[in-house]
Write a structure and sequence with these properties.
The complex is a heterotrimer of chains A (207), B (101) and C (626). By secondary structure, chain A is mainly α. Helix content of chain A is 65%, strand content 0%. Chain B is an all-alpha fold and 101 residues long. Classes of the chains: A mainly alpha (207), B mainly alpha (101), C mainly alpha (626).
């Protein structure tokens, strides 16, 4: 079992590294699916078969596939490969990498300082999990449903068309009769934000 | 022979750090969402490992909630990506900086 | 009686509030009725109160009415209380009656000159503040009224604010009196620390029981500075000639009849302090004598009809201060009352002249009013005669006589004070009749004729003229009937003069000298007028000694170079002092921090995430390595 875990973990690490470092979005998402599948194996070896199944079904099957759909609908995959590469110069990643390494070192220290070995059998069945979830944690289930509802509402709100958006300060001053300048089919009527918002941006802080 | 939970914890830490690095380095919003998913997963793995250590169901229960959080996060993240793409014709997170002081 | 006292000052203030709130939107008749009506009712009540007081014995002639506490701290308290005694009631009667007549006059005079309701609102506020000043039972309430009338004076001098020079004149009046008021305020603080109270009767009784001391002298001197500032005495006389920028009825009410005499009232009210410090009292007399000479000489050469009257006011208040200085308290108050009548009359007459001649102020370009307006001629003649003190028939004669007699018997340099006062009589006659002849005699020098005057102008002036003549008979010298109504009325507050009287024959002789001087002055003015009509020399810029007098003896130049310039220079230095370094440093540091913090607000999500990452690093580190 330990060997299976190590193999799965290694695969997962490699796939994740590839997922966050690719410049092609579609490739990255496919690596992410790979990583999640490997992680599901790891779950299983830890005795959490139920979580492993959910990982495959919900994460890999639903969430990431949803991401994939969106990326393909927007046609983002591979379109700006050069731009994407240009954004990854050393000046971009040196600072964050230092921080990340620091966190890694600290976590290593934590683990090195000791976790007690495992008990003999660590298998936890789906029955046990659900008994807990709908027992002591039932309030959490309700809260999760609220969270999902809120997520749906905000997603719908953000994705609405014809929304009023505040113009950025760098844009040329908005004009009311700018419909003819809009690219066709976007559905955005080019409505400018309230006048004060534009003023607010164009005005520099007086020093 | 069951897997030592500390292995799970180490794996979780490695994945979390990778996700954090991706989050800090990438400017493409899609990768930001991916990185957040990775980090959430790492957190879930940590819970499951701890649950395995004590042979308790609570770890997996929290993982269930984590799934809900991840789903909501993905929905909103995607909506934000769509919005950004719609407004600025790009998915570069640096292009949305109206909050600059 | 208790409540009536409060109604007297509150009515005009209520009128002010009503006019402020509703005046803009209502017809001019509303402003006129509210403005004049409230003051009229106040005048009626003050007169009733005065008659009541005159009817009761001396001991009962003080009514104090308190509305409750104002400031209460351990060891010191001030309440809202008014004090009606003979002195304050005399003031209140004169103020309200004259104010009512001038309000009446203004209803016609201010028509068509803009901001009708604002004018009456200010004027009502002025009357209310003035009444608070004279009726206040403690020095704090007096001070509130004191500042209130100063404010109204400022507002009304700058009433026609479109012209910047009017605003500058208002500023000048406000700032000069403010400097003197600072001294008054210090005097009040000293009073509190010395006597522990501001209640007038308590302060006076404690001062008289404590006797003479340097502190009392200091308080007397400080109050005197405040008084001469308000009353435009040397060296604070600068502001009054410029204050003529205001509407003419305002000059009549505030800058002739009432407000400028507040200083006289203050000194008379606190006269025990001056009795206790003879040095300061001598200073009062000297200031008065110097000012009456200064005002008379300066008035001689002025061309502006209102500036002549302004210098005349300075000079006449000088007489009052001379009277106070030589201890003739009731004589000074007597002169105040007469002066209020005849000077208001003269100003209102000048207002009619200016109105008829379409705003002409220069007396050299006037003339022939006698033909166009016969009633005005007689009214103005009455006022001028009363001001000069034409013997026997005018009030000015009797009040000046009372002051000069007391000056003669004053132990320190009495005859000298008398001589200055007598010379002042000559000057007074000369300048006012010079003005009178130029304005009323001869031919009209203006083209386009005159504007008709409203009939409302005349009843107030007639009543004032009656007052200017008859008020004199309230007190006559011993050889001319020996009527002592005035001094008897004031007896409970202002003790009669303390010095031994001069012999009867001396008095008669002094009276004859001053009477002759006044008549001589009229004659001299006539001769000078005849000469000037022939030579036309007055039209050109004055030069030499005339120019010196024309500019008010260079007082403005002196004040500018001695006070204003050094002050500005000093202020210029203080602008760059090191204290500012600290405050500017605080601002600079704030800006610096702001600029630094602005960098953190880059608007980049990654930037914020890096912040979170560093936070995680640090906090984990604290857990791990602790």
């Amino acid at each position: 079992m330990t060997i299976a875990f190590v193999i799965a973990g290694t695969l997962s690490i490699i796939a994740t590294l590839l997922a966050v470092s690719r410049s092609n979005t579609v490739h990255a998402l496919l690596y992410l699916i790979g990583s999640l599948l490997a992680l599901a194996v790891a779950f299983y070896t830890l005795g959490a078969a139920y979580a492993a199944v959910l990982e495959i079904m919900v994460y890999a099957g639903a969430i990431v596939v949803l991401l994939l759909f969106v990326v393909m609908i927007m046609n983002l995959g591979g379109r700006r490969k050069e731009e994407e590469r240009a954004l990854l110069g050393p000046s971009v990643w040196v600072g964050p990498s230092a921080v990340v390494l620091g966190v890694a070192v600290e976590l290593a220290v934590v683990f090195a300082s000791g976790l007690t070995p495992a008990t003999e059998s660590s298998y936890v069945s789906a029955q046990m999990v659900n008994a807990v979830v709908f027992g002591p944690y039932v309030i959490g289930v309700e809260l999760a449903s609220f969270l999902l509802l809120a997520g749906v509402v905000s997603a719908v709100h953000l994705g609405r068309r014809h929304q009023k958006v505040i113009e950025t300060g760098s844009d040329s001053p908005p004009e009311r009769s700018s419909e003819d300048r809009d690219p066709p089919g976007t559905g955005d009527r080019g409505e400018s934000g309230p006048a004060w918002a534009t003023r607010l941006h164009s005005k520099e802080v007086v020093e | 022979m069951s897997v030592p939970p500390v292995y799970g914890m180490v794996l979780a830490a490695i994945l979390f750090v990778i996700g954090l690095g991706g989050l800090l380095i990438r400017r493409n919003m899609v990768f930001v969402v991916i990185s957040v998913e990775v980090m959430l997963n790492a957190g879930g793995l940590g819970f499951i490992s701890a649950g395995a250590r004590w042979a308790q169901a609570d770890g997996q229960a929290v993982f269930l909630f984590l799934l809900a959080v991840a789903a909501a996060e993905a929905a909103i993240g995607l909506a934000l990506i769509l919005w950004l793409h719609h407004r600025h014709r790009t998915v570069d997170s640096d292009s949305a900086r109206q909050m600059r002081g | 009686m208790q409540t009536v006292i409060w109604i007297v000052p509150i009515l005009p203030i209520a009128g002010f509030i009503i006019l402020t709130l509703f005046g803009r939107r209502s017809a001019w008749q509303f402003s006129a009725v509210v403005g004049a009506g409230t003051v009229g009712v106040s005048a009626l009540l003050a007169l009733v109160a005065g008659l009541t007081l005159a009817g009761v014995p001396d001991a009962g002639r003080t009514v104090i009415s308190s509305l409750g506490d104002w400031v209460v701290i351990p060891g010191f308290s001030v309440d809202f209380s008014l004090r009606l005694d003979v002195l304050s009631d005399l003031m209140a009667m004169v103020i309200t009656v004259v104010a009512f007549l001038i309000h009446l006059y203004s209803t016609a005079f201010m028509r068509g000159k803009g901001d009708y309701h604002r004018y009456f609102a200010y004027l009502n506020l002025f009357v209310g503040s003035m009444l608070l000043l004279v009726l206040g039972n403690n020095l704090l309430l007096l001070f509130v009224g004191w500042e209130g009338v100063g404010l109204c004076s400022y507002l009304l001098i700058g009433f026609w604010y479109e012209d910047p020079t009017n605003g500058l004149a208002a500023n000048k009046a406000f700032i000069v009196t403010r400097i003197a008021d600072a001294a008054l305020l210090v005097g009040l603080f000293l009073t509190i620390s010395t006597f522990g109270t501001l209640d007038i009767s308590q302060v006076l009784s404690r001062a008289s029981s404590a006797g003479s001391s340097p502190t009392v002298t200091a308080i007397a001197a400080l109050l005197l500075v405040g008084a001469i500032g308000k009353s435009a005495q040397l060296p604070f006389q600068l502001w009054l000639p410029d204050a003529m920028a205001g509407p003419t009825p305002v000059s009549a009410l505030i800058h002739a009849a009432t407000m400028v005499t507040a200083g006289v009232y203050l000194v008379a009210r606190m006269h025990l302090f001056y009795v206790l410090s003879p040095g300061v009292q001598l200073a009062v007399a000297i200031i008065g004598a110097a000012t009456l000479l200064y005002g008379g000489l300066s008035a001689l050469t002025q061309h502006d009809i209102k500036r002549v009257l302004a210098y005349s006011t300075i000079s006449q208040i000088g007489y009052m201060f001379l009277g106070l200085g030589v201890g003739a308290w009731s004589a000074a108050m007597f002169h105040f009352m007469n002066h209020a009548f005849f000077k208001a009359l003269l100003f209102l007459g000048a207002g009619v002249v200016i109105h008829r001649l379409n705003g002409e102020h220069n007396i050299m370009r006037m003339g022939g009013i006698r033909r166009t307006d016969r009633p005005l001629f007689w009214l103005f003649l009455t006022g001028a005669a009363a001001l000069t003190g034409i013997p026997l028939v005018t009030s000015g004669f009797y009040s000046k006589e009372a002051i000069l007699e007391s000056a003669w018997i004053y132990p320190v340099a009495g005859p000298l004070f008398w001589a200055i006062g007598a010379f002042g009589v000559f000057l007074t006659g000369a300048y006012i009749f010079r003005l009178f002849f130029h304005v009323f005699l001869g031919e009209s020098k203006k083209d386009g004729g005159t504007r008709p005057a409203s009939f409302i102008f005349y009843p107030p002036m007639i009543l004032l003229a009656v007052g200017a003549v008859l008020a004199g008979f309230l007190r006559t010298p011993r050889d001319l009937g020996n009527v002592q109504l005035m001094s008897n009325f004031l007896n409970p507050v202002l003790a009669p003069e303390q010095f031994r009287p001069a012999g009867l024959s001396t008095e008669v002789m002094l009276q004859i000298v001053t009477a002759l001087l006044s008549l001589l002055a009229v004659f001299a003015a006539y001769l000078s007028y005849r000469r000037s009509t022939k030579s036309k020399v007055e039209e050109i810029e004055p030069h030499g000694i005339k120019r010196f007098l024309y500019t008010g003896m260079g007082a403005d130049w002196l004040a500018t170079s001695l006070v204003v310039r050094p002050f500005l220079w000093f202020a210029g230095i203080m602008r760059r002092d090191w204290v500012d370094l600290f405050y500017n440093g605080v601002a600079q540091a704030g800006l610096l921090v702001n600029r630094a913090l602005r960098y953190t607000q880059s608007g980049l999500v990654r930037w914020y995430l890096l912040g979170i990452g560093i936070g995680v690093l640090v906090m984990l580190g604290m857990v791990v390595f602790s």
